[in-house]
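MOLECULE: protein
FOLLOWS: sequence and fold
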Amino acid sequence: MASTSLNLFSAILLLILLSKGMSQRCSTNDLQISQDKTGVLVQAQPEFEVKVLNACPCLQGNVKLGCNGFQTTDEVNPLTLLKSGNECLLNNGSSLIPFSQISFKYAWDTQFSFKPVSSEINCN
């Protein structure tokens, strides 16, 4: 009986430590960016849909993507993606909840490679 209680206590302690460790390891690497052609042409340019997934179990806010050289013939809603210099602010700075995604579309002759630059992680 004591062995079963000790095993249960050990399992619970391990889960607590793992959950605390996961929240501390969140970073911009947990922002997964994918994009595909939509099949639509905008002003003779192929349209791309970009999806940014927060794969972190914590909120990620004030997400900035590197977008030096980014161009589009199709206007992107500035509340979704706002270009400022070499960076783009995602979601108007609002937090992406854990395991959710936000998407936007743009049109250009080639696909642009967006990379996460920074975010503010909140694991409360």
